[in-house]
Amino acid sequence: MTDLTNSFQQFCDLQNRRQFIKQAGIGLGAAAVSSLAQPASAAVPAGCHHQPRANRVIFLFMAGAPSQLDLFDYKPDLEKLHGQPLPPEISKGQRVTAMTRGKKQVICASVFKFAPQGQSGLYMSELLPHLSTLADDICLIKSTYTEAINHDPGKTFFCTGAEVPGRPSMGSWLSYGLGSMNKDLPEFVVLTSAFWSGKVNVQALYSRLWGTAFLPSKHQGIAFQSVGDPVLFLSNPPGVDRKTRSKMLEFVAKVNQQQQQLTGDAEIQTSIAQQEMAFRMQTSVPELTDLSGESQAAMEMYGEEVHKTGSFARNCLLARRMAERDVRFIQLFHRGWDHHSSLPTHLRGQARDVDQPIAGLLKDLKQRGLLEDTLVVCAGEFGRTTYAQGNPDRNNYGRDHHPRCFTTWMSGGGIKGGISYGETDDFCYNVAKDPVHIRDFHATMLHQLGIDHERLTFPYQGLNHRLTGVEASRVVKEILS
Questions:
Q1: CA angle, 140 as apex, 62 and 51 as ends, to 5°?
Q2: What is the spatial distance between Cα 419 and Cα 417, in angstroms, rounded to a whole number?
Q3: Strand 114-117 relative to strand 383-389: parallel, antiparallel, unpaired?
Q4: Could you tell me the domains of the chain?
Q5: At 474, is the secondary structure helix, strand, or coil?
């Protein structure tokens, strides 16, 4: 038994030496490459490949896919074609969902009015009266496209860079590449709305949309809860005060450190760091979520629902407070945008949910000087069809999934405001000019944060993985200021 114990100890010592040499080699190699790549005078932040224009991202995800035809992509000529079949030279036999396959594709013009907004004259729907006042601060990307045609692959693609589950999320990549800018809050936080106006066709959100996959687990997104403690198990158990909790964590940390030294398992170090962060968050999170110090004027910018815990409006205000505290990646999910029927009714409610809160967020960031280095982006998983589902009734039409073209937008963080990039054809069915794939969208986002998307990689199963995958993608430099 003694010989076996000694052999095991020798094995552990050997593993510890290997772990040290590996980590030291990586660290020295990275430092050497960094020193060769940049002159001493160029103060490029750690983890960056070039000077960033943005330090953080607020990603507004409209889960279910908003209709670009009814919100952003104005197609007045469709009024003349309303009720007519979609020409085959436009549809080109492209893939459609099982809900549409074999059925007539009848053109349906939007029932909503559009008007030019701001000095830039961007056309926006009457459903967005608050956001329209900020048209000069927004870049509409009307030529976004994807391959995903169903919701789960579509959301997974946008959030992780691949349709198939098992890839790290956007925020996890940023956490891995750039690290944290604060010591008391997570670098990646997720806020999901607890309620929304669109009550039909609501899909689930899965934690893998903000997961780490094969990246170290310390880069996991932390989902704040809409009821109870903002973070699970944040409060001390009954009968345990803060001093006792601190002693308990100190003891657990010592045990974990001994185990880490024995095995060389990097995930144990992650556990220690997360436990220490959780202890600090017992103070930082209640302070973050306490809105009593917010002025009435600030609260009013976000609308009445800012007072409701779990509302999209309140989450937008929390996002601004997190940006102030240098949380790196803040992702807000709002569901209920899957409008296969009764679109005019449901879309009105959904737009009302988010219009004033998003406008309030942009105004608030701008007033505080935060929009300059905060990249705000908004998207759904794909777009909606120009043809109707069901009869093209002016007051009761629906639209199916459409991956071939849809509108996303960006603001702040070095993005040109008041511009529309890319064009769709007269039917809003195909990209006619300047296509922007989701991978291009990701590459542009990373570029504004100082990252070359081709160089942010992680080795796994024989491949240097990256958020933008192995296929060609580009930074959309035309929208950069």
A1: 95
A2: 6
A3: unpaired
A4: 55-238+284-479 (3.40.720.10)
A5: coil
